[in-house]
Amino acid sequence: MPAPGAELVLGGRPVDLRARVLVAGVVPVPRFGREGEVLATAAGVRAAGADLVDVSLPPRLSGAVARSGDTPVSVRARSAEEALSAHEAGAQLILVPPDVAPASGAGQVAIVVDDLAGLAAARDVAARRGLPLAVDATRWSGPEAVGREAAAVALGCRVIRTADVRRSRRVAEVMGALLAARREEGA
User: Fold this and answer.
1) 19 and 183 in contact (C-beta within 8 Å)?
2) Which of 98, 120, 118, 121 is nearest to 109 (CA)?
3) What is the DSSP letter of 138?
4) CA–CA separation, 145 vs 32, rounded Å?
5) What pTM, to 2 d.p., does this model score?
6) How far apart are the two ends of the chain, measured CA to CA in Å?
7) Apex CA 109: angle with CA 103 and CA 115, to 5°?
8) How far is the CA of 81 from the CAs of 78, 86, 107, 160, 164, in angstroms?
9) What is the mean pLDDT of residues 139-149?
10) Which label site among 111, 167, 174, 184 has the fewest CB atoms less than 10 Å from its CB?
11) Torsion sign over Cα 160, 164, 169, 170
């Protein structure tokens, strides 16, 4: 299992990604576009077991969750400008595709992939930049999702972006235990 790129600091605490897999639960677009809806959904995502609340919405909404201080916020950014805006709104982890090089002031960044086919190339980009690797599992469901998430972790992803927090939490716990056992074996 490849070692991930870098250590993350979330909520003021370092996270050792060599033996830990983080789950970023996605907050969907609110029905009425209100901050209260987003805050309530973020609380539900956190209660379901997410390590991060992914609020890939406009900075006005992601910022409200970040300011609440309840849990670290991640945002999926599709451009360097979006990454910078997300960081300025308070996101602690910015997920960017391999072809986006965020500006130096964009905070903590991870490279995100949507499928396993692009994982090898993304892993190379992440290794060159010294960044962790994430997988976006929001479009996967059922047993197929469990297998794909586990494969992504085995191939170096240490953040799972998901709409099904409980499923991904189970995958993260099992794969984290395997990573820790392997690390102890190598020590």
Assistant:
1) yes
2) 98
3) T
4) 30
5) 0.92
6) 15
7) 115
8) 8, 9, 12, 23, 28
9) 95
10) 184
11) negative
**CATH architecture for the domain at 17-186:** Alpha-Beta Barrel (3.20)
Residue 108 has phi, psi (to 5 degrees) of -75, 135
The structure tokens listed for 147 are: 């297998």
- Asked if residue 65 has pLDDT above 90, the reply is yes
What's CA 31's distance to the chain center, in Å? Answer: 24
Q: How far apart are CA 19 and CA 153, in angstroms?
A: 11
Q: What is the CA radius of gyration of the chain?
A: 15
**What is the C-alpha to C-alpha distance for residues 75 and 117, in angstroms, rounded to an integer?**
23
Tokens of 153: 């972790």
Q: How confident is the model over 31-52, as a mean pLDDT? A: 94
